[in-house]
Amino acid sequence: MNAKVDFYFNKAKKWQEAVIILRTIALDCGLNEELKWGCPCYTFEGSNIVLIHDFKEYCAFLFFKGALLKDENGILIQQTENVQSARQIRFTSTLEIIELKPVLKTYIYEAIEVEKAGLKVELKKTTEYEIPVEFQSKLNSMPDLKTAFEALTPGRQRAYLLHFCAPKQAKTRENRVEKYLPHILNGKGLND
Question: Which pLDDT tens digit goes with each residue over 28-39?
């Protein structure tokens, strides 16, 4: 156990008992406990294996390379269509975790084997993402914008493309593009 992570288990009101059990399961599998992104993260030889997080309706194990796990029990969930690698196992009760304990350990051990084997999830390249016409026209008419956008990290580029493509209405897409032009020109990401 890592004392830096204790606060998380003390603050988890609704899910406190559940996340403590998840912590025990992860530690029983020989993983190291660290604090990452404000959550308990369990690593093997420096590689992220599983993270515990809780929400209003559920708590969860998040497997960083869950897309590579066999999921013989059909319990892994892709949070959104844009999540490429990670998969969650969601819990709505402590009893559910207790009943699944052997299965959860099996998934953790499999995730460790994925790391040992050096397997990687084949991620979609930034160039494969749709560029909305509203943004493309700005890129075509503003060479500085094109240069600034191409200088962003691939993750920042993807975040903008997903954000710009999300609205159904062209006017909303246009407004989003206009709003973030200064950010892009200043080399900042969507959330910077």
Answer: 999 999 999 999
